[in-house]
Write a structure and sequence with these properties.
The complex is a heterodimer of chains A (242) and B (199).
Chain A: E1 8-17, E2 22-28, E3 40-46, E4 52-58, E5 67-73, H1 81-87, E6 93-100, E7 114-119, H2 123-135, E8 142-150, H3 157-161, E9 167-176, H4 190-196, E10 205-211, H5 212-224, E11 232-237
Parallel strand pairs in A: 7-8, 7-10, 8-9, 10-11
Antiparallel strand pairs in A: 1-2, 1-6, 2-5, 3-4, 3-6
Chain B: E1 24-25, E2 46-50, E3 56-60, H1 61-65, E4 70-77, E5 82-93, H2 94-97, E6 107-112, E7 117-121, E8 131-136, E9 139-140, E10 150-152, E11 165-171
Parallel strand pairs in B: 1-5, 2-11
Antiparallel strand pairs in B: 2-3, 4-5, 5-8, 6-7, 6-11, 8-9, 8-10
The chains are: A alpha/beta (242), B mainly beta (199).
Chain lengths: 242, 199
């Protein structure tokens, strides 16, 4: 198991804009050892004078050979994310190391139903699980509850609109729902998790990812619905995730 | 030789010598936990030290409150790279709790309500280096930050400062805890950047 983590050069190969403030970066990382859905990596950027900054980012997709994907949201007043979302161009280089994290992960051998609960940019590691499921042709049923401020904030909008048998997606809008949306704008509620999730008796594995307040609320609601605490895995994105 | 990222200039935030390598400063207090926040009412809270010879020393919440408390201001460092300077805590020094504990054990396995565990050499908990903290910034410690009480070991990465702390098991042999078995470093010294195993 022991493997000295090494920094590897990573070259930006492709960029896809997700929203006005977020974009997906596909990086070519020669020698990338592969990863499990839900893991993240450490990223290091270095200025010309040698100054460096490091951050952790969730991996957005299963590894494709030496190719990895991140989706980065620009943090207002951030130090690294504005570089990744606005400045970095195809061909530019950073360094990465990883993968990191062995708890908030889904493995394709899993057989329990899965509930994914995303708040905003918390969708990123959960999307990696959805893509890993599809790639492995797993028949484990997935349900995704994706809480957003408004319609325009959706990541991976096209891909999540395409039919993916065994994956049900429910959107929850907290500020501005699309016109004609039946559910009023509100933070995630018990009914959202009761209707869009699984009954506790099905013993699903629950993955909750988002800002702290969202994760606290969603995890408490899952407990109230009878889900066992040990089947609720959480990952919190602080406002300083820059 | 590091690779230069074209167009990156960076912020060079303040922090100076108090900022361990690879860390950046935050003003807020991010929350990291692996699962739901356990709710532990103080009247059901208990803290126990179990020695390697099978003796148990227990404290109820009321007993803990009756012990001499300390107030200290420390810097805290999370392995996810944030550092928060000058955080102020109140709690009981582990030296007070260990006064009557007879042990020759070298290792401590800390465990929490909710099932979390983390390990460290016993020496890292003694001599004014660790506390059971129950107040932060002049307020009762919030549940998301480990309330009613958490371990505070500011000289190690913050995952060692177990939230919702419930007890310490003293052991002759080291026994890795939750993150230590999930790829993180066994010791976790921020100044040596001991983030992951083999760092």
């Amino acid at each position: 198991m022991a493997r000295r983590p090494t920094w590897r050069p990573a070259r930006l190969a492709e960029v896809r804009r997700e929203t006005g403030t977020a974009r997906t970066l596909r990086l070519e990382v020669p020698g990338w050892p592969g990863h499990v859905a839900g893991q993240h990596l450490d990223l290091r950027v270095t200025a010309e004078d040698g100054y460096t900054a490091q951050r952790s980012y969730s991996l957005a997709a299963p590894a494709d050979g030496d190719s990895v994907e991140l989706t980065v949201e620009q943090v207002p007043d951030g130090e690294v994310s504005p570089y990744l979302t606005e400045v970095m161009e195809v061909g530019d280089e950073v360094e990465v190391r990883g993968p990191v994290g062995g708890w908030f992960v889904w493995r394709a051998e899993g057989t329990a139903p899965v509930l994914l609960v995303a708040g905003g940019s918390g969708i990123v590691p959960l999307m990696s699980m959805i893509r890993a499921r599809r790639r492995a042709a797993s028949r484990v049923p997935f349900r995704l509850i994706y809480s957003l401020r408004d319609f325009g904030g959706r990541y991976y909008a096209e891909e999540l609109r395409r039919p993916d048998p065994g994956l049900d997606v429910t959107y929850v809008y907290t500020r501005t729902p699309p016109e004609g949306w039946r559910r009023p704008a509100a933070r995630i509620m018990l009914d959202d998790l009761a209707e869009g999730g699984w009954p506790a008796g099905f013993e699903p594995e629950c993955y909750v990812c988002g800002p702290t307040g969202f994760v606290e609320a969603a995890a408490d609601l899952l407990l109230a619905l009878g889900h066992a605490p040990q089947r609720i895995r959480t990952e919190r994105f602080g406002p300083t995730g820059g | 030789m590091a690779i230069v990222s074209r167009g990156f200039s960076g912020r060079r935030r303040e922090g100076g010598e108090r900022l361990p390598p690879g860390q950046y400063l935050v003003e807020d207090f991010p929350v990291l936990s692996a699962g739901p926040t356990p709710v532990v009412p103080p009247d059901r809270w208990e803290f126990a030290i179990d020695t390697e010879s099978g003796q148990t020393h227990r404290w109820s919440w009321r007993e803990l409150m009756a012990l001499p408390r300390q107030r200290q201001t420390v810097d805290i460092h999370c392995v996810t790279r944030w550092t928060k300077l000058d955080t102020t805590w109140e709690g009981v020094s582990l030296d007070v709790l260990f006064e009557d504990v007879e042990t020759t054990a070298d290792y401590a396995l800390v465990h929490s309500y909710g099932g979390y565990t983390t390990n460290m050499p016993l020496d890292d908990l003694l001599d004014g280096k660790a506390w059971i903290a129950y107040r932060f910034d002049g307020e009762e410690l919030a549940p998301v930050h480990g309330g009613p009480a958490r371990l505070l070991v500011p000289h190690l990465y913050f995952w060692k400062s177990a939230k919702w702390v419930r007890g310490i098991r003293l052991l002759d042999d080291d026994w890795p805890g939750f993150w230590e078995t999930a790829g993180y470093h066994n010791y976790g010294d921020p100044w040596r950047e001991q983030r992951y195993e083999d760092d």
